[in-house]
Structures are given as structure tokens and as C-alpha cells.
Amino acid sequence: MAEKSRIGVTGLAVMGANLARNIASRGVPVAVHNRTTAKTTQFMQDYGHEGDFTGAESTEDFVAALEKPRRIIVMVKAGKPVDGVIEELTPLLDEGDIIIDAGNSHFPDTVRRTAECAENGIRFMGVGVSGGEEGALLGPSIMPGGDPEAYAEVEDVFTSIAAVVDGTPCCVHVGPGGAGHYVKMVHNGIEYADIQLIAEAYDLLTRVAGLDATAIGKIFEEWNTGDLESFLIEITGKVLAKTDEKTGRPLVDVIVDQAGQKGTGTWTAIDALGLGIPLTGITEAVFARGLSALRDERKKASATLAGPSPEGKEDRTDLVEDIRQALYASKVVAYAQGFAQMRAASIENGWDLDLGAMATIWRGGCIIRAQFLNRIRDAYAEHPDLDNLLMVPYFTEAVANAQDAWRRVVVTATEQGVAIPAFSSSLSYYDGYRTERGPANLIQGLRDFFGAHTYKRIDGEGSFHTRWSQDGTEVQTD
Prior knowledge:
It contains 19 helices and 11 strands. The chain has a 7-stranded mixed sheet, sandwiched between helices. Strands 8-9 form a two-stranded antiparallel sheet. A two-stranded antiparallel sheet has the order 10-11. The N and C termini lie far apart (73 Å). It has helices at residues 14-24, 37-47, 59-64, 80-89, 107-119, 132-138, 148-161, 179-207, 213-223, 231-241, 264-275, 280-292, 295-302, 316-349, 355-361, 373-382, 393-416, 421-433, 440-451, and strands spanning 7-10, 30-33, 53-56, 71-74, 98-101, 123-130, 141-146, 164-165, 168-169, 464-466, 474-476. By secondary structure, it is an alpha/beta fold. The model has no long low-confidence stretch (mean pLDDT 95). It has 3 domains: 7-177, Rossmann fold (3-Layer(aba) Sandwich); 184-433, N-(1-d-carboxylethyl)-l-norvaline Dehydrogenase, domain 2; 440-476, 6-Phosphogluconate Dehydrogenase, domain 3 (Single alpha-helices involved in coiled-coils or other helix-helix interfaces, Up-down Bundle), CATH 1.20.5.320.
């Protein structure tokens, strides 16, 4: 066993434990610690034989087990627990040591912690890690943010444990400060939209086409061989194919229709509002989860509120293909919105994000890994300052080819009374984005009437105000 460990991991729940095991499997000596000593003991009993581990019962022993400068990965629940670990570690660390928060922290917290640690001479990194339990163990997508010099000291470890696609590790330094956690936040937001779109497709195939879970699972298996190929489409087929051991029914049919959430989708939507980015698909996905939580209210409403009931008699062949195309087009919109948000945040915060690199590291390990991320990577390689992915010829053509089916799906769902917030909002975004002159002129006129907010004219420079409650004349305000 090495005299000192190269890196430490504190927080040995499943993600932390698997990340530590992944690192050790690359021949890197790892010190492990958990606030509850029994977890450290259990970890060493279960996995101590897998690599060069040093189990530490106390925080003091944990810090002492690390070579200098110390490199410590924190894998605890976001929020106050992270602050608690930092407060406990700080008095024991020296100038130049590195604390790495690899949990799902909100990026403003990462910015704050970076500044607070710097006051004590400690370097802080906020690192997004995606891939769930399996990814943490076998190869996640890693989004490191923070001091580039600090990253240089752990780069070899991170790139060695990351997923690899076409010989390229799914890990790259994202940018300074909270950039790493920001990109992970948007990743999770796109994940929300992706999952909601899949759920809406499943709902239409169930309630309108009248197909059962087994048949729909086979459809998703087939879709995963084409342009929709992705991790989420793949596991959708597997979930739908699963039989419940107690009832013999498809497992999905006995799962309560309430979706949980941990906040990252909400953070993404709120941040987009602050940036002025229309993040319709992701935001509607967050709202849909909120609506799913109102199960008791929905039960009452289902017996009270009027509306059509799905007949389950649509032409299955046509509808299935239409849904596939609508799903792909809506998915393109969700990614276009997410990348537009990252671009705006990069400009706002001076991060200089390489959006093509983000697409590259999302191709493997992470939850939203998908075949068409290669197309996104190529798009940014050719157009680094791209405003919106919809303007790239490949995606322009793909969405144009799918739009007739997309519109039929939205009409059918509306006529049948099936809620499709992500499908319909994505189509509305597409139509709004391609409209040269929308109705916002009236909005601005109304704002000027009740609040003197002024407006601009199409035939001149400057801002203007009409004296609506006086003589009705127009005056220039600047």
C-alpha cells in the first residue's frame, strides 16, 4: 500500500462509493471516508480488495492519509451538507489543497464556495458527473469547472475514469467558477425534456393508438436502431418490457403516475428566465412533473371536468410513425434551447464555453447520451458562434421533414384530450422562432398604454411614448 493516497473521496453513498472504486481500478491509491464510520467500515469490507484503499474513520485521519497538495472529492447531498463538509475540512487543509464538489450543487453555491475557499488559500472545483450509479463505476461523463491549474492536477485521474467514445474521454475542463455545475444543470434540464417527450409518446401510443406496454416497448426498441438512438430510448424499451412479479402485469402499469424531481430542472428553467432564453420544452417538463404530483386533485378533476376521452382507434401504423417523427423534432428543439441557454450563460459570465466540446463529452457515460450529439459536435465545429442549432442545415432539414407529422400528432392529441405539453410547446417555439413578425408589437403597445414603458418604431431609431391619457400625441423619449 502506498504511504499516502493520491486522492480522497468523502461521502460513501452509492455514487461516492462507485466513483472511489472506479478511481482505484485505474491503479490510483484512494483514501475513503464517511461521516458515519460504519459506512467506511462496510466499504472496506465489501470493496477493500479491489484496489489500494485507505479507510479513514475520522476527518483528521482522512486528511492525513493524502499526499500534498491534497485532492479531496466531496460526494454528499447538495446544499448544507456540502457546506458542512467544507467547514470541517478547511481547518485541516493547507494552502494549495483542492476540494472537488462532484455532486449536483447549484452553480451559484459553487461560485460562493470558490470565493470562500480562496480566502483560505484552498482551491475549489465544481464538477458535474453524469451517468448514475453505473456511470460512476464504469465511466461517467465528467464536466469539471474551476481553476484550470487545479484541474491540471487531477486531469489524468478524471480522464482515466470517464467514459470513452471514439477514443476520446468524455471529460473536458468546462470553464472557471461555477461553469462545470452550470453545464451539468443544463444537461439535467435537457434530460427532463427528453424524458417528458418519451412519456408523452408512450401516453399517445397507449391511450390513442390503444397499444399495450409490451407492444410499445418493442416500438422503442426499433426506434433505438435509427436516428432516435440514445440511452433513454434504449432503457424505455427495457422498462416497458419488464413484467411485475406480483401481478404478472407490465411493471409500468402498476407504478404510480407521480414523477419525482430533485430541483435541477427547476434551476435550469429559473436561470433561463433570468437570461431571457425561451426554454419552453424543459420548463414544460418541470411543470408536468409538478402536475403529476397533484394526483388526488387529478382524480377529482377527472370525474368533474369536461373534455374528450381518447378512443384508442387511430390507425396505428401511421400514428406510430408520426409520433416517432414528432419525438425527434421535439428532441432537436429541446437540445437547441439547452445549448442556446449555455451560450447565453457563457457570454453573461465570461466562461468561454466550448459548446462543441460539451456535445462531445455528452456522447458517452451521461444520461442524455445520444447518436445525434455527434451532429451537434460537428455543427459547432463548423459554426462556433452559432446562435441556434435549428439554423444548421442538418437540423433545419430534419425538423422540416418531420413537421407535418409533428403537427398531426399535436392536432390528434388535442382532439383526443391527451396532454402533450412538451410536444406542443416545442412546436410553438419552432413556429415562433421562424416567424419574422410576431404579435409582440401589440404587447409593447399595451405596456406603453398602462405603464409608459415606451416602444420602438420600425421606421426610425430611438424609443417613443404615446400620451394615451392626454392628447394621444407621440413623443420621442431618447
